[in-house]
Each structure stands twice: as C-alpha cells, then as structure tokens.
Amino acid sequence: MIHFIKDGQFAITAFGGVIGVGKAVVSGLVSTITILVLTLYFLASLPQVINIGLRFVPATRRDRVSKLTNAIVARIGSFVGGQAIIAALAATFILIMGLIVGMPYPGPLAMVVLICGFIPLVGHFIGMSIVTVVSLTDSLTTAAIALGAYIVYVQIENYVITPRIMRKSLAIPGLVTIIAALLGASLLGLVGGLLAVPIAAAVLLILDEVVFPRADQA
C-alpha cells in the first residue's frame, strides 16, 4: 500500500510537471505570435510614425536624423527578414521530414517550428521538444528519427545557414547577439529576447555613424 501511494504521488507530481511545462510552452508561443502580429502592424504604420517624429527635429539636423533613422529601420528590417528566412527553412525541413517518416500532424508542427524560429536562444529547444513529444504518439522509432534529424538540422543551421544569411542581412558580431539576447530575456522575458538583437543592431549603427566619428574628430 505504501509503495502504491508513493507511486501515485510520483505520478501526480510528474503529471503536474508536464502540465506546467506545457503551459509555459503554450504561453511562450502565444506571446511570440502576439509580438509578431503587433510588429506587423507597427511596421505598416512605421513611415507615418517616422515622419511625425522627424517634425520634432530641428530643420538643420532633420536630414541627418532622417538618414540615420532610415538606416536603422533598414538594418532592423534586414534582421527580421533574415530571421524569417531561417525560420521558414526550418519549418520546411520539419514538414518534409514529417511527411517522409510519417510523423503525426506535420503541417501544424511545421507552423510551430516556424513560430519558434523567432524565439532567440531557446526557440529550437522548444520546437524540438514539441516535435519529439508529438512524434511519440506515433512510435518511439518515429520520435527517435525526428529528434535525430532535428538535431542534425540545427547544427547545419547554426554553422552553415545562419552565418550565410545573417552575414548579408545584419552587421553584428555573434557574441553581441548572444549577450543582447540574454540581457533582453533576463530583463523583459520573451519580449526582451525578441527585441534585444534589433535594438543592439541599431545601437551599433548609431555608434558607427555618430559616436565614433565624433570621437575621432575630438
């Protein structure tokens, strides 16, 4: 009886842990979707916002500020575009792999991986966990194949795909990217992690275009 009670308590604790992880994952995905939707709305109205903001700048500096603002927007846009390409490639891989190995719900899982692709640092871990757990509902073999293939793809993405795409779209050192993402996530959670890298890119551009030239002239 004691062993039965202990086993029952262990099962309840384990189930509660799984539910907690599931809630955290769902919450993260919902937050990411919300941020992406709000970002699209913001980008659609960005030209009007910039024009209104420039009217508060003195006329003598308006042209300079306008060029710098457009450069910042272009750099952030390049980062978002590059990240979207990387996420789309990962989602396409999951879709094709799922169809080949007979993974359950390959389409919805590909969409989950697409969304996770915008989450810095832990996005692939979340996507990999969801893909593996769903694949377990089919068979252990399917889950093992899905997990192994996903791990191989992540390595290819980290060392081949991402450097090639981000080298062209975002001039920011890799170490700065990691530090910015960690700092943003620690301060503002998921939102901070998503916004940290574009903000770091904007700060580097301001340093290159404004701060460093003035320091050289001093």
Provide a short characterization of the protein structure:
With 218 residues, the chain is mainly α.
Description:
- With 218 residues, the chain is mainly alpha-helical.
- The chain has one domain (2-213).
- It is built from 6 helices and no strands.
- Helices cover 89% and strands 0% of the residues.
- α2 (59-101) packs antiparallel against α3 and α2 (59-101) packs antiparallel against α6.
Topology:
Elements: H1 2-54, H2 59-101, H3 106-116, H4 123-136, H5 140-169, H6 174-217
Helix pairs in contact: 2-3, 2-5, 2-6, 3-4, 4-5
Question: How big is the Rg?
Answer: 22 Å
- Could you say which overall geometry the principal axes of the C-alpha atoms support? elongated
Mean model confidence by pLDDT: 80
- How much of the sequence lies in strands comes to under 5%
- The domain tally reads 1
Count, helices: 6
Question: Largest beta sheet, briefly?
Answer: none
What structural class results from the helix and strand content?
Answer: mainly alpha
| Pattern of helices and strands | HHHHHH
**How much helix is in the residues?**
over 70%
Low-confidence stretches: 1-7
> How many E-type strands?
0
N-C termini distance: 82 Å
Oligomeric state of this protein:
single chain
